[in-house]
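Bumping my old thread because nobody answered last time. Still need a sequence for this structure:
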């Protein structure tokens, strides 16, 4: 007979509906209340003092002091031993189970923990930890005896419905042995859970978090809304548990006063740092944990706020920022240019469909993969990717690259409608340096109805972006633009996306050269950036410094206009009006500010002169050509440089 089968029998018996058992055995009507009370069937009770706790499937009488679980009730009701009470319940309530006595005897040879009455010594030990008879009965403490005669205290672990899913058993605390493990699970392989989740009142504003089950039970007894992890303070907090905790407006963390407590606190603070709730740390003034604090006369209800400090994680002052070492920005070059992609930041690259955003990013991935681990989530099929990679090979785009590194570091996954949760799990498992989602709508198709809806996009992505920022994962999301709009306004769902991503990038076809593409970006704390690039006949990317090109063309137009009007002194406005149309025909959008900067550069180089020479308040400059300057003529053909970059 296996340990698992014996546990299943015991679990079924202990999870019998205690209200139904009591009503059938006593014929006493039980009121339909959250915590019903009836007159005790075991003593002359003038007022209802027999209390039933459906959440823990237990009972306690405030008159006679008796209490326990369904087995305890049957023992007292019919004056039976524990074994006979189990046999009685099996016969009258679980007829489908085979003879339990045979199974128990068979299991004893395998070291199965046999249920016996909670000894008076162990009950006294629990009382010394400030637990009352009512609490011991309410939480269904049991006693187990192994085949070597050792006693174990059993702490039942409940799910949200109050069903017992396991027992955490503690070796006899009166016979401590540092060489033996202190705790075990009666049933192995059970999923960890929050404890006592079935006793939590979600209508309350506050929740208290502690490390151990006995501490949680004590605080529950004292009237606190409390939770811990059934498994100990070193158990890793799951995201689903954090979501439960965030439902409360005030969160109080009570760490043990040891190194494990510090680790527990730091881990939990990191998990809760993104919460909008008020989070507090309660530093106990004495005792190792909550129980010892109460044993030494403490009481959280009267605890002075000197021991409570508002959680500062996630908040900072100007002094904090000035005193800390500055983190230097690390750029990941895009077509050889810095300023577009920042390591560890989130980016959204938007373009009208079929503009070439996939080609742009993936070609850069070939270079990035020599230094970074990249995960590319694509809307395209494997067959299309095979064709693309074959073209790259024919163009010779792998030449000069560490192809072995690229194969190792660059992973492509066709991931249509994978969903944010699916992406989240993949990132946790693979831990890429760079995550590329191509495109947003295709990947999260099952999570969102309308990619232009600010509220839908925001609710979907907010926690995911924070998750990536915490991991320092560089994110590049490929997205669509609206055809009728220009610039950042063209991004679908602008109001939501613009606020959440660190850098916004748009990709457009050049107005005067359909082979060229214009990249424009704006982001947090970095200067806006513009870049023009094109593909040549060999499939190589050519990056054109648009700022340098514009400056050269503006300066050339100024010099040519002043040459045509040699001998005249012309104002900035006159020059602007004359060259504006010519430059716009070249695809250059000139402003008075750009023109003024070009005039100043030409003046500093000595190519042109001005009156007055000095900067006088309210003076209007008049410009004219410096006939003596060898640099008076500027040739854009000679000065314009195009940088060829091959990936």
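Sorry it took so long. Here it is:
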């Amino acid at each position: 007979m296996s340990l698992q089968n014996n546990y299943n029998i015991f679990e079924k018996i202990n999870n019998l509906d205690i209200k139904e058992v009591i009503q059938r055995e006593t014929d006493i009507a039980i009121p339909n209340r959250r915590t019903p009370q009836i007159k005790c069937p075991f003593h002359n009770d003038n007022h209802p003092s027999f209390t039933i706790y459906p959440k823990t499937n237990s009972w306690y009488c405030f008159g006679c002091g008796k209490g326990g679980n369904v087995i305890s009730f049957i023992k007292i009701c019919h004056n039976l031993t524990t074994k006979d009470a189990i046999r009685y319940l099996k016969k009258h309530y679980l007829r489908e189970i085979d003879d339990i006595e045979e199974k128990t005897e068979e299991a004893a040879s395998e070291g199965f923990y046999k249920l016996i009455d909670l000894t008076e010594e162990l009950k006294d030990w629990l009382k010394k930890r400030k637990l009352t008879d009512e609490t011991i009965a309410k939480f269904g403490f049991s006693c187990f005896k192994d085949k070597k005669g050792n006693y174990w205290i059993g702490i039942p672990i409940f799910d949200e419905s109050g069903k017992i899913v396991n027992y955490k058993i503690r070796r006899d605390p009166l016979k401590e042995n540092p060489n033996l493990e202190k705790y075990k699970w009666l049933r192995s392989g059970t999923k960890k859970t929050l404890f006592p989740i079935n006793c939590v009142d979600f209508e309350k504003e506050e929740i208290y978090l502690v490390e151990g089950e006995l501490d949680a039970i004590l605080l529950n007894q004292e009237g606190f809304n409390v939770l811990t992890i059934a498994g100990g303070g070193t158990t890793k907090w799951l995201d689903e548990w954090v979501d439960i905790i965030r439902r409360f407006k005030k969160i109080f963390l009570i760490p043990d006063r040891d190194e494990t407590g510090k680790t527990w606190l730091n881990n939990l603070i990191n998990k809760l740092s993104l919460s909008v709730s008020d989070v507090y740390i309660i530093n106990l003034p004495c005792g190792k944990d909550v129980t010892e604090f109460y044993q030494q006369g403490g009481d959280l209800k009267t605890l002075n706020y000197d021991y409570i400090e508002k959680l500062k994680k996630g908040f900072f002052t100007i002094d904090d920022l000035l005193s800390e070492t500055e983190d230097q920005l690390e750029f990941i070059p895009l077509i050889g240019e810095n300023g577009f992609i920042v390591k560890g930041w989130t980016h959204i690259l938007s373009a009208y469909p079929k503009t070439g955003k996939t080609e742009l990013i993936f070609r850069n991935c070939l270079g990035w993969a020599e230094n970074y681990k990249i995960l590319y989530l694509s809307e395209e099929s494997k067959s299309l990717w095979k064709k693309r990679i074959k073209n790259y090979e024919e163009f010779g785009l792998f030449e000069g690259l560490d192809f072995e590194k690229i194969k190792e570091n660059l992973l492509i996954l066709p991931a249509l409608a994978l969903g944010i949760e699916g992406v989240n799990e993949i990132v946790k498992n693979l831990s890429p340096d760079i995550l590329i989602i191509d495109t947003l709508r295709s990947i999260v198709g099952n999570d969102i109805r309308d990619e232009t809806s600010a509220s839908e996009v925001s609710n979907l992505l907010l926690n995911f972006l924070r998750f990536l920022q915490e991991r320092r994962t560089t994110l590049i999301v490929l997205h669509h633009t609206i055809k009728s709009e220009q610039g950042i306004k063209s991004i679908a769902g602008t109001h939501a996306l613009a606020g959440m991503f660190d850098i916004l990038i748009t990709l457009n076809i050049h107005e005067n050269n359909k082979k060229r593409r214009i990249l424009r970006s704006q982001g947090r704390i970095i200067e806006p950036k513009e870049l023009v690039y094109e593909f040549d006949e060999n499939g190589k990317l050519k990056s054109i410094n648009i700022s340098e090109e514009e400056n050269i063309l503006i300066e050339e137009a100024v010099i040519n206009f002043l040459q045509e009007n040699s001998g005249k002194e012309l104002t900035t406005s006159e020059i602007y009006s004359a060259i504006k149309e010519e430059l716009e025909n070249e695809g250059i959008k000139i402003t008075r500010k750009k023109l003024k900067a070009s005039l100043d550069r030409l003046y500093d180089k000595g190519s042109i002169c001005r009156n007055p020479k000095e900067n006088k308040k309210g003076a209007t400059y008049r410009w004219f050509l410096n006939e003596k300057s060898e640099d008076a003529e500027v040739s854009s053909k000679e000065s314009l440089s195009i940088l060829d970059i091959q990936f």
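The chain is about 35% helix and 20% strand. Let me know if any region looks off to you.
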